[in-house]
Amino acid sequence: MADETRKATLIIGNENYDLPIYSPTEGPDVIDIRKLYGQAGVFTYDPGFTSTASCDSTITFIDGDEGVLTHRGYPIDQLASKSHYLEVCYLLLYGELPTAAELEKFEDTITHHTMIHEQMHNFFRGFRRDAHPMATMVGVVGAMSAFYHDSTDISDPHQREIASHRLIAKMPTIAAMAYKYSIGQPFVYPRNDLDYAANFLHMCFAVPAAEYVVDPILARAMDRIFTLHADHEQNASTSTVRLASSSGANPFACIAAGIACLWGPAHGGANQACLEMLKEIGSVDRIPEFIARAKDKNDPFRLMGFGHRVYKNFDPRAKVMKQSADEVLDLLGVENNPILQVAKELEKQALADPYFADKKLFPNVDFYSGIILEAMGFPTSMFTPVFAVSRTVGWISQWKEQLADPQMKIGRPRQLYRGHKQRDYRDIETR
Ligand code: CMC
């Protein structure tokens, strides 16, 4: 809603342009520049969207200065300690915490959508065995639109709902199958008697030859990792999903686009990159060398798992993740894990260093998640697929919200063109 009493005035030459200001529930005011080009004939320039609100949303809020993250108003630390992943999925999708009956129905629906079309097994077999599981996931999730035609019509609310449930339910199955395929083990079918996180661990680590009992503490830690990554407002992969969806693309294609974007090391790929970095550092005595490299402008090296576009304070998810890392490693009897020791010492030394303090670089969620995942038995290549499983509900919730928004338009940024002015084609002999 525009605040009629306040307007931002932009002066270009002798002309004044009044721009409406919107007041959000929380966060900074927003200046509406949608009519600016029509009125003043100028564009705004904001590569990386550092000062641009790309949509109107009611799902997730981040106060980066205070280190606050809320979903539908509920703080992430409360959700991580008191709730669980599927309840958070319901909250993100429908806006309110479910009643007991609503939750039971939702969990039942998700549980009964976890199997994938049997023919998709053949599709997996087309990939090379050494494919990164994220490469397989991008392909398989995109291919879901070829297998589930009855939920690709975005104008039908019922189909939208089914597509949402299918994606949340099947993503762990697809990620686990991508992993099993990469290590040459048989696919493990989902089990309806296990909860979401336990079922995922079972599909990843069980083999037909032996019974595999999921440790409830590991299942709880897995559930917490899913919960902490469930949504994060308009990050790169979510914005990718929204942009893909703005053209009217089907939900499976949009989520495949989100997975592709998540893969990059500046985003979801950071958990893999962070653990690889901790291993490369290897021992605490080498930390100063790596900190020096991270500070060196001539060295492209960055401390992975450090820094965030929005958080200029502790990432609230990292605090919970650090505690989880201690619990899981303690349970597994590896509390003296050298990687954890390097991580803790690196965090300490970086936080005490004026370079990181001045630039407000703090550990982010990926700093500790890799340590937990590795202790659970996941190879580094599975870290980003786990993130993709968790984030699916966030992508879907934002996709649903966008489709319901009457102001939705195809996303079509403009540019600051600095190329050649128009010139005439020259025949090849004259060049
Ligand atoms: N190590 C060393 N220096 C850093 C780091 C880092 N991890 N992150 C930022 N800086 C410096 C950077 O060199 C720049 O310095 P200067 O102002 O002198 O040029 C300044 O801090 C600001 O960095 P930026 O790249 O302009 O900031 P950004 O908001 O565009 O980037 C980021 C945010 C997350 C991409 C970046 O901090 C980074 O590359 N971090 C490491 C990768 C990582 O952990 N990513 C996971 C993010 S959380 C999970 C997720 O969202 O998927």
What does this 3D model show about the protein?
By secondary structure, the protein is mainly α. Helix content is 50%, strand content 7%. The chain is built from 18 helices and six strands. The strands form two sheets. Strands 1-2-3 form a three-stranded antiparallel β-sheet. The chain starts with a strand and ends in a 27-residue tail after the last helix. The model has no long low-confidence stretch (mean pLDDT 94). Carboxymethyl coenzyme *A binds next to loops. GO terms for molecular function: citrate synthase activity. This is Citrate synthase. One of its GO terms (cellular component) is cytoplasm.
Give a quick summary of the entry.
With 431 residues, this protein is mainly α. Helix content is 50%, strand content 7%.
Ends apart, CA distance between termini: 57 Å
Mean pLDDT: 94
Instruction: Estimate percent helicity.
Output: 40-55%
Structural class assignment: mainly alpha
Radius of gyration computed on alpha carbons: 23 Å
> How is the biggest beta sheet arranged?
3 strands, antiparallel
How are strands sequenced across the largest beta sheet?
1-2-3
- N to C succession of SSEs: EEEHEEEHHHHHHHHHHHHHHHHH
Q: How many helices?
A: 18
Low-confidence stretches: none
Q: Give the cofactors and ligands.
A: carboxymethyl coenzyme *A
User: Which strand-content bin applies to the residues?
Assistant: 5-15%
Shape: globular
